[in-house]
Amino acid sequence: ICPTQSMLAMVDDSRDPPAVNVK
């Protein structure tokens, strides 16, 4: 995954369930 995606995923995981992290 790209660095941007990783950062976005971290933010998403912060406000959303871990389900996003699995994606």
From TrEMBL:
<protein>
    <submittedName>
        <fullName>Uncharacterized protein</fullName>
    </submittedName>
</protein>
<feature type="region of interest" description="Disordered">
    <location>
        <begin position="1"/>
        <end position="23"/>
    </location>
</feature>
